[in-house]
Amino acid sequence: MDTNFQPAIERGPRGKYRQHSLEFKRTLVEMAMQSGVSVARLAREHGVNANQVFSWRKLYEAGQLAGGTAAQGNELLSVVVTTPAQAPAAEPSPTGIITLEIGRVRLRIEGQANAATLAQVLELVLR
């Protein structure tokens, strides 16, 4: 990157902590969000810690870094939850267990058996 700008650093009342302007933070975050950019290298070039840049990026994406907007594709959508229409009560399907033993072959079918599948299985087993 050939863009290099100097941060406006002000010393706060707590002592040696640097306070960067919102413009500096936004610019750095926008540069860090470009594809192929190393956040660590970018932070080092501008005299800040990479973790600080990641923190600013989260604030920017949440819209909390004055002027930052939520990241594209992360907008909230309205959702309406409705109760599904009740289907008419159907007769309960017959369930059970079918066990067929022929020699060393044991076949167990649980639940509702499909007639066509059962016919194919019986045809093969009874050959």
From TrEMBL:
Residue spans crossing the bilayer: none
Q: Which domain of life is it from?
A: Bacteria
Give the NCBIfam families listed for this entry: IS66_ISRel24_TnpA
A Pfam match is HTH_Tnp_1
Q: Organism, per UniProt?
A: Duganella qianjiadongensis
Q: What is this protein called?
A: Transposase
